[in-house]
Specification:
The chain starts with a strand and ends with a strand. An 8-stranded mixed sheet has the order 7-10-13-16-19-22-24-25, covered by helices on one side. It is mainly beta. Strand 3 and strand 4 form a beta hairpin. It contains 3 helices and 25 strands. It has 2 domains: about 80 residues, Rossmann fold (3-Layer(aba) Sandwich), CATH 3.40.50; about 110 residues, 3 Solenoid (UDP N-Acetylglucosamine Acyltransferase, domain 1). The chain is globular. Bound molecules: coenzyme A. The site of coenzyme A has 12 residues, from strand 24.
Length: about 210
């Protein structure tokens, strides 16, 4: 059945995810954007901004929400402030390739945008964004609330903790683990494990002091 979905975040990512959902009219009907900084009454992609995020906090009854925020920490803060009856659909662009669906699990609120490819034996947590043209190899695990920016390649056996940000165009080689709240810079090539709460940049990636 078609889901009526509110989108939190009316920035660039919010509009991109809205465009993706509009391309799936049999699955989703977008009810509006909710954003603390864009004025009510603004219309974006013919979708109204209905108010601040607080409006959803006081909404009653079952309601579907997508959180279109790239920063994992902000994403977590918003989601943890929302009532427990809110439901989070999975959004998958029609061009996404899932190598073997029976071995791939996707958590609630996860968004896979155009050109994403996942192969086999992959676990994706809740509220994960995998953005344009990223590839995820076999036996990879991605924790809750991670954001994978466009053009990232995660090789086989990669493990990401929770709230990890992988910047656009980064490559992570096989069997690397990246800890909770770590960040990887755009264009980095990650050859070794990265500790929680650290930022690594460059080729090869080195942790910032
Ligand atoms: C890695 C990142 C998170 C660091 O952000 P930050 O903590 O604010 O770090 P700063 O911008 O203060 O940079 C700190 C240092 O790292 C360097 N640096 C930052 N990002 C870098 C990158 N991607 N590659 C190489 N060096 C980088 C800076 O030049 C700076 O070096 P300096 O101390 O010698 O001047 C950020 O730069 C990044 O790459 N984010 C990903 C963005 C992205 O992919 N967006 C996609 C949107 S769709």
């Amino acid at each position: 059945m078609k889901k009526k979905v509110a989108i939190i975040g009316a920035g660039g990512l919010g509009r991109e995810i809205a465009a993706l959902m509009k391309a799936l009219p049999e699955e989703f009907e977008i009810t509006g954007f909710y954003d603390d900084t864009v004025p009510v009454g603004t219309t974006l992609l013919a979708i109204p901004v209905r108010g601040a995020i607080d409006k959803l906090r006081s909404a009653s009854g079952p309601i579907h929400v997508i959180v279109a925020i790239g920063d994992p920490q902000i994403k977590q803060k918003i989601i943890s402030s929302l009532p427990s009856h809110i439901q989070y659909p999975v959004v998958i662009h029609p061009s996404v390739v899932l190598g073997d669906k029976s071995t791939i699990s996707l958590g609630q609120g996860t968004v896979l945008t155009a050109g994403v490819k996942l192969t086999v034996d992959i676990t994706i947590g809740d509220h994960v964004l995998i953005n344009l043209n990223s590839t995820i190899g076999h036996n990879t695990s991605i924790g809750n609330l991670c954001s994978i920016m466009p053009g990232v390649n995660l090789a086989g056996g990669v493990t990401l903790g929770e709230r990890v940000l992988i910047g656009s165009g980064a490559n992570v080689i096989n069997r690397v683990s990246i800890g909770d709240d770590a960040k990887v810079g755009s264009g980095a090539v990650v050859l070794n494990n990265i500790l929680a709460k650290t930022t690594a940049v460059g080729v090869p990636a080195r942790t910032l002091k």
